[in-house]
Structure formats: structure tokens, C-alpha cells
Specification:
The protein is of the alpha+beta class. Among the domains are: 2-95, Rossmann fold, CATH 3.40.50; 123-192, ATP-grasp fold, A domain (Dna Ligase, domain 1, 2-Layer Sandwich), CATH 3.30.1490. It has 14 helices and 20 strands. β14 and β15 (284-291) form a beta hairpin. α6 (98-105) packs across α7 and α8 (132-140) runs antiparallel to α9. It is globular. The structure holds adenosine-5'-diphosphate (ADP) and magnesium ion. The site of magnesium ion has 2 residues, from loops.
Length: 428
């Protein structure tokens, strides 16, 4: 069958790489894609929110499966658009409609959903702009650190952890009163701070049945030792040592199963990925957030550990036929190191020529922000490449990833040196 992946990051390159290995995949397209996806698929110059353009493309190229990578087209209702068009409504899609994507698109909705269904999560209260004074008063009675969360999509910048009440009050004024994040901060959650270790668990579901994907830990800060500002993600590791079978069993029983039965009870159809961001608090799972899609750079590590025919699994999800499906997961470790442009996550330059891309043997290089030009592959984003090494141990996977990273160059390239180190030293 012909397949279309929507998106242009490292996540989409990893999905494209995995999908392209399946004998069920005839022609693979990525819209809009990057220099890496063009090695395994054909890039299509369509934006992720050009619903009518994407629809016409699917008809023209007889697309038999659409996989939606990023959150924006999900929350904007790409699936709903396809379902409403007579010539598109039969095309199987991986990715929920607008109603399901609210799990990610509204933190107020997802918090209330968790409370309704008894899913463990931090306590929170939501305030609107009209309730700013009430919110400020409420904050005065809270014990710092205090977590403030903009309700809507804010490209990973909408959560602020405040060290004092005064700081939280100032932040609430900016978010609600001054609409710091636009409509995304028309509502703000004030949330209890949880102390623990974070990890992410992913499922692929057709709304009734599901498969659990390999879990992963990601590294959000720009600097070694989790220092400096937040980024889209600077690395990931799978498996995660502290997510043992006892912990993962709790996640299935207390989180995954009530999430799916909650969606069913509320008549929210859901065919796609659910990313469950968790805090492990002394062995007990608490949900930090849901995403309605896979994470980046977690996907690069997760795809590297899946041994099943990925198109069969995705297709079964999109058609509502996941019952009885099992995933084959490799025992190997995967470590992904993101290489970013100088200055990221602040302002950064684009258009630097990347060298050393061809000399990789130990690890797989997924492209994130790259572009093919006549002079070669150039940087075209903040996060430029994601290099994934695999090995029988975490140490071996790390070494393979870092050996390959060391051979890739452009002026000002930066990356973290400590991806996975905390897990090697875990418990020691
Ligand atoms: N209740 C909480 N307690 C402690 N840390 C939190 C809490 N909520 C969020 N965080 C931290 O903030 C980060 C971002 O929050 P999250 O809800 O995942 O929002 P988003 O990914 O949309 O920015 C989390 O990865 C976590 O490190
Ligand atoms: Mg998050």
C-alpha cells in the first residue's frame, strides 16, 4: 500500500525508516519531510495544516494509510476533516480526531478526565482570566515549588515551575492577565509539585485494544546534569531501568486501562498513539500529561527496539483491528543523542553545511532540522540530528551513539555528553 506520514522532524524520520522496511509498504511519502526522510521516502511540499492539499494528495496517490506525527494537525482536526469528505473518509488514519486530541490539546480537559476516571495524577485547580484574583489568593496558600500550566498547546513552553509564591503570582498574572501564551493561557492550572523520576510509556490503540510500546526516558534540558533551559528534547533512552515489571503492571492497571475505558464511556473514538508522561513517585505511577502522538526524540529510541512488521501494526490500529496483536520488542538498549544548532533553544543560525553524515556505521542518524541543497545537507532547525546507537548494554549503546556523533560536524554543533549516564549509575 501507499503510505503518507505527516510531519518533518526526527520522529517522522524514525517512523519513515521503520515503515519503509515493511514489505507492505509500496510507496512512502512524507509531508513536508526533511533531508533524512528523502533517503527513505519521497518528500511532498505540503504543510501539516494544509488539510485540503493533503486530502487531494491522498486521492491522487491512492494512499492506503496516513500516519500523523505532530500535535498541531491532530488538535486542529485533520482526522475530522478527512472523515467529513466522501472521497477521504475511508482512508485509514493513525492519529485521533479533535475530541481525542484534547487529551493533549487541553490540560484542563485531561486533568478533569483523569479525575473522573480515578487515574493517579497531581492535584490541580484551574483558573480563568476572570478568576485571576481568586487564583492569586489560592496561590498564597500553596507550598512551593508550585507548578503552573497553560491549558492549551504552547510548544513545550507552557509549564513553569515556580520556587516561591511571589514568583507563581507574577507568572499567573502574565499567563492569565497578559495572555503570555495567547489563547493557550486563557486558562491556567495550578498544580501540586510531584517529586520523583520521570519516564514515558506509549501505547498504540484503536480505542478498544492496545499494544504497549517500549518505554523511554527523555532529557529535556539543554545542558549536562539537567542544567539550563528546557528544549524540545536533547536525548532519550530505552529501556528504562527503574521501570521494572511491577511498575509497568501498575501503569497498565491504574493508568492505561482506565484511560481507555474512560474514552469509551465518554464516547471519544481514539485510533492512534497515547504518550503517557509519568512521574515514578517511590514506585507509584502518577500521570504528568498525555500526548496524542509519539514524542521526539523518544520515537527514535522506541522504533529502534521494535522488531514487528510496523505497517501491519499501524494498519491494524487505523482499521480498528488491534485485537490479538502482539509487538516483538528487542532486548537491546537504544540511546539517542540530539545534535543541536549553536544558540538553541534561543536564536540560532540555519544553513550550516553538515559534514561526516556518510561515515556512520555504529549508529543510525535521524534527521530533524535539515534540508538538502546543491552544496549538501544543511542545518534547518534548532534540533538538527538525532543519533541512535543500539547495544547489548546501555553502555555499549551509548558508546556507539557518541562515536557516531563525534564524526559529524558543523560550526557550533552542540549536544549533551551525559545521555543515559544517570541510568547506568542508577541505584549505585
Ligand atoms: N506536577 C508536577 N510536578 C513536578 N514536575 C512537573 C509537574 N508537572 C510538570 N512537571 C515538569 O514539567 C515538565 C513539562 O510538563 P508537561 O505537563 O509534560 O507539559 P508540556 O510537555 O506540555 O510542556 C514535565 O516534563 C515535568 O518535568
Ligand atoms: Mg511533557
Amino acid at each position: 500500500m501507499n503510505i503518507l506520514i505527516i510531519g518533518s522532524g526526527g520522529r517522522e524520520h524514525a517512523l519513515a525508516w521503520k515503515i519503509s522496511q515493511s514489505p507492505h509498504c509500496e510507496k512512502l511519502f512524507v509531508a513536508p519531510g526533511n533531508a533524512g526522510t528523502s533517503q527513505v521516502a519521497e518528500n511532498v511540499a505540503l504543510r501539516v495544516d494544509d488539510f485540503s492539499g493533503l486530502g487531494r494528495f491522498c486521492v491522487d496517490r491512492q494512499i492506503g494509510l496516513v500516519v500523523i506525527g505532530p500535535e498541531v494537525p491532530l488538535v486542529k482536526g485533520l482526522r475530522d476533516y478527512f472523515e467529513a469528505q466522501p472521497d477521504l473518509h475511508n482512508i485509514p488514519i493513525v492519529g485521533p480526531g479533535h475530541s481525542g486530541a484534547r487529551l493533549e490539546g487541553s490540560k484542563d480537559f485531561s486533568k478533569a478526565f483523569m479525575v473522573r476516571h480515578g487515574i493517579p495524577t497531581a492535584q490541580a485547580r484551574t483558573f480563568t482570566a476572570a478568576e485571576l484574583d481568586e487564583g492569586l489568593q489560592y496561590l498564597a496558600g500553596q507550598q512551593p515549588p508550585i507548578v503552573l500550566k497553560a491549558d492549551g498547546l504552547a510548544a513545550g513552553k507552557g509549564v513553569v515551575i515556580c520556587a516561591t509564591v511571589a514568583e507563581a503570582q507574577q507568572e499567573l498574572r502574565e499567563m492569565l492577565g497578559e495572555r503570555k501564551f495567547g489563547d493557550a493561557s486563557a486558562k491556567v492550572l495550578v498544580e501540586q509539585f510531584l517529586t520523583g523520576i520521570e519516564l514515558s510509556v506509549f501505547i498504540l490503540t484503536d480505542g478498544k485494544d492496545y499494544v504497549v510500546l517500549p518505554e523511554a526516558k527523555d532529557y529535556k534540558r539543554i545542558g549536562d546534569g539537567d542544567a539550563g533551559p528546557n528544549t524540545g528534547g536533547m536525548g532519550s533512552v530505552s529501556p528504562v531501568v527503574f521501570a521494572d515489571s511491577t511498575f509497568l503492571k501498575k501503569v497498565e492497571q491504574r493508568v492505561i486501562e482506565p484511560t481507555l475505558s474512560g474514552l469509551q464511556q465518554e464516547n471519544i473514538p481514539y485510533r492512534g498513539f497515547i504518550f503517557i508522561g509519568l512521574m515514578n513517585v517511590k514506585g507509584e505511577p502518577f500521570v504528568i500529561e498525555y500526548n496524542a502522538r509519539m514524542g521526539d526524540p523518544e520515537t527514535q529510541s522506541v522504533m529502534s527496539r521494535i522488531d514487528s512488521d510496523w505497517v501491519e501494526v499501524l494498519s491494524a490500529c487505523a482499521k480498528g483491528e488491534l485485537a490479538g496483536k502482539k509487538l516483538k520488542i528487542s532486548d537491546e538498549f537504544a540511546v539517542t543523542v540530539v545534535m543541536a544548532a549553536e544558540g538553541y533553544p534561543g536564536d540560532y543560525a540555519k544553513g550550516q553545511i553538515i559534514t561526516g553524515l556518510a561515515s556512520t556505521t555504529d549508529a543510525r542518524v535521524f534527521h530533524a532540522g535539515t534540508r538538502q541543497t546543491d552544496e549538501g545537507v544543511v542545518t534547518d532547525g534548532g534540533r538538527v540530528l538525532a543519533v541512535t546507537g543500539k547495544g547489548a548494554s546501555l553502555d555499549e549503546a551509548r558508546q556507539r551513539a557518541y562515536r557516531t556523533v563525534a564524526g559529524i560536524h558543523w560550526p557550533g554543533a552542540q549536544y549533551r555528553k551525559d545521555i543515559g549516564l544517570d541510568l547506568i549509575n542508577f541505584g549505585k
